[in-house]
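Students often ask why we bother encoding 3D structure as a string. The short answer is that it lets us treat folding as translation between two languages. Here is a chain of 451 residues written in the first language.
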Amino acid sequence: MTTPQTILVAEDEALLRRILTGLFEEAGYRVVVAATGREALDRFADSAPDLVVTDIRMPEVDGLELLARLKALDPEVLVIIMTAFSSVESAVAALRAGAHDYIVKPFVNDDVLQAVRNALRQKELLGENRSLRRELDRSRSYSAIIGVSEAVQTMLELVGKVAATNASILITGESGTGKELVARAVHYRSQRAKGPFIAVNCGALNENLLEAELFGYEKGAFTGATHAREGLLKAADTGTIFLDEIADMPQSLQVKLLRVLQEREVLPVGGRSVVRFDARVVAASNRDLETEVAAGRFREDLYYRLSVIPVRVPPLRDRRGDIPLLSRHFATRFGADMGIAEVRFEPDALDALSGYAWPGNIRELMNAIEHAVALGGDVVARAHLPERVLAATTSAAVISSESVSSLDEVERRHVLSILEREGGNKGRAAELLGIDLSTLYRKLRRYESET
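And here it is in the second language, the structure alphabet:
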């Protein structure tokens, strides 16, 4: 269950405190209240809220002094100031002092909620971008993409070639395969590496919010738009914008995005003048966009605009030889977080990890290794792996180093048995195996050369 975001409400009028508490709690937020500015400082230290909503006039410590003290404690704290209509000049002073927004009393509930949503969304975006930058600072190009398998090396070779161009790239692959890492590798291997890298999950926002985030908006464009904001396409100027889960973008917005990509200019929501931008577009999808186009769910012209260069990220089951490398990499990371200098795997643990199908791909493997290190500490044995991995890889199926019923041989028998069962229908066999047809053909050619 997701932990609700916390709002600290500082208001000396009891009735308003109750109104705001009910409004925010009904919207799904956790609320902490304070009757004075001094109490708000104490509550802030105890509750670590995501947002502070404070009246500007309070006894002991007023809203402006509270803002200054909160900023001294946390320069990135988001504060919304409430003020009476007759004191709007005080709100302007608060904005200059670092407040995120202000609300004029008496207020409309919807306006308050919209201001809160905008502030919290900005906090999430800033947090996501900081997280991405930390990850990228640790590994500026391919070092974050671990693998020696043929599938990964083929993909990396293609990434190396296309990174130097400005062509749009469409990255496809199942959920959890590492499409974001590939997008970042493209960015940091390109001439735009010194520019920003901005990631947007198109499936996480509704249509109106996604349009406002991408294109920006003018003050007064909609309820809660108390000031103009630059869109993420413009914010990615000279760099790269990564449009993740592009298949989830509503069709009406697909039309607008197509024009934006063709003209390289955006019209902010509520605006009259276009804004030029220069950002490389890298999109990603865990769905087959050709199938989405055929079904009428995705625009064909936008598909061709985005997929100038297609890059497919292989699922983990197609690169089993990389599982020990990835497992050790994640174990080292989680071990360091737990104060463990070195994590060692027992052979039966690596066998089980290599024998599991990993439907959740690298993301599932990473979570499994965190689970195993938490239980096993510096030595991970088979018993420390998640139950789903153990259940799928029984002791009878664990492949020992003495039995050269290797993983490749097990896979070969499985593939050929499925193909035989389907009467040689390669398309149907590939679908049942969960791989694309070209991967099946490569496997069959390899099997033929080995006989």
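Translate back mentally: The two ends are 52 Å apart (CA to CA). Keep this in mind for the problem set.
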